[in-house]
Amino acid sequence: MHVESIIIAISVINLFALIVGAFSFATICPLISKKKASNLASKEDIGQITIFVENVKAQYMAELEKVRATLVSEGQGRGKATPCL
After folding, report:
1. Are 64 and 85 in contact (CB under 8 A)?
2. CA torsion, points 25, 30, 33, 34, in degrees to nearest 10?
3. What is the distance, to the nearest Å, from the Cα of residue 39 to the centroid of all Cα atoms in its chain?
């Protein structure tokens, strides 16, 4: 009879551990999913911001080249040395 009570006690402990584990998993799993979704949104936002920044840089470089070309042509028309830009 002593062995049977030990088996019952172990079974109760296993059942308790299973319940605690299931509850922990049910609680933690949505938190992990939410965090992963947040990280994915952040990566998408960073991608969009990067594209925007690169477009602005390209526009700025195009404008800068126009200004340089204007300065060089004005300098050559006046007989001045070409500026080093």
Report:
1. no
2. -150
3. 5
User: Could you tell me the pTM of the whole model?
Assistant: 0.45
pLDDT tens figures, 48-79? 889 999 999 999 999 999 998 888 888 776 65
Place of tokens 């840089």: 57
Cα separation, 12 vs 17, in Å, equals 9
Using the structure block, give the residue that is written with the tokens 């042509």.
73
Q: Are 72 and 82 in contact (CB under 8 A)?
A: yes
Q: Which long-range contacts (CB under 8 A, 24 or more apart) does 39-46 make?
A: none
pLDDT of residue 53: 92
